[in-house]
Every structure is written in structure tokens, then in C-alpha cells.
Amino acid sequence: MARVVATRYIQVGGKRTPVKRIKGVMQLLPRAVMEATAVQLRVSAEETRELVIDKILAGSGRRRAPRPDRISKSKIETSDRKPFKLKPLSPNYARGKELRNEDGRILVATGDYIAGIEVRKANIPGSGVVYGVGLENRNHVPSGIPLAKLAKILERGSAAAKIPPRPHWAPTRRIVLRKLKESAIDIQADALRRLLRAAR
User: Fold this and answer.
1) What is the pLDDT of residues 100-129, one digit of tens each?
2) What is the extent of the structural domain holding 179?
3) What are the helix and strand counts (H, E) for the chain?
4) How many domains does the chain have?
5) How far apart (Å, rounded) are the C-alpha atoms in residues 89 and 166?
6) For a tag on the chain, would you pick the N or C end, based on fewer CB atoms within 10 A?
7) Ranges of H-type helices in the chain
């Protein structure tokens, strides 16, 4: 089970309430952890996973890596996603990917990184269920680097490895937060899923 930590406390009415975070996952909205239902949190986490994967796979380049299965089998259609605006691959690296028969899209080579994006659930005694989005606790198969470390390198860049920042988690978080602000606090799960699937 995922480890859950209290990151800070806030005052709700006359009660001091901890804001919980699942270690190693993207925290979507502290307010949601306190006020949203478990179903709303699950839908938000599932659709955040789908959004980041869809936007990564929307990039241009030869497509070889398969798309990971959707968690939700909902019949609600997903809108066409715009790709992330990322610095292009260097010509040498792009040629190397081609020679190795890898996927030509940025952030995709074999598909192992995107396959590691998961929704995690944690049950907090006395507080209920919390969901978050993160990466499996394992190493990236081609490189041997832990997936969480690889995500930080890709997100922030690495001068030593000559990798420019290619943010994909932070922009996804901004999109989801914007969509959640558009929703009512008592939004039904289907309506919330529709709202997040319309995010581009």
C-alpha cells in the first residue's frame, strides 16, 4: 500500500484537519483530499493519468510504443489532446532512436515510462480513501533508473546528461486544477469524468 503522510494542517470550521499526500504521487488539490468524495478523487486520479499519457502520445514522430490500457472502461469519449510543447530531440538522439527501432515521440522510446504511470489508492484510518497519480516503484527497463528519478530528470532536465527540461507533470496538474475549479464541489462522477476527458 502507498505511504500516506500529513503534509500540513488547516482549520475547517472548528476542527484542525490534516492535508494528506500519498508519497511519490502528484498531489492534485489539497481541498479535494478534504472535501471530495472517494469516487471524485478516483475519477480525478484516473483521468489525470489518461490526460498525461494522451498528451505524451499526441507528440509527433514514428509511433511504435503501444498505449497503456485505460483504467476506466467508461464509454465517455476523450477529446483529441494537444501534445505538450517540448524542446525537440537532438538530431543525433533522434537518429539513435530510429536505429534502435524505438518510438520517435518525445518522452517515449519503448513505452516503459508511460506504462509505469499508475493510480494509487491509500486508505487512511479515520479519514477515508485517498487517490493519487504517480509512477510504479520500479526501475525503467531500458535504462535501469528508478522511474521516479527518471520523471524528475525529464521534468526538470539534466545539465550533466544534456537533457533539456521537458515538463509534463506540472502542465498536467495545471490543466486538471483549472478543470476542477470549473466544477461544482458536488459534481457527479460521470460529469467530472466528462469534464476531465474534454481537457486538451
Assistant:
1) 999 999 999 999 999 999 998 887 776 677
2) 4-197
3) 7, 5
4) 1
5) 10
6) N
7) 30-35, 38-57, 91-99, 112-115, 147-156, 169-182, 189-197
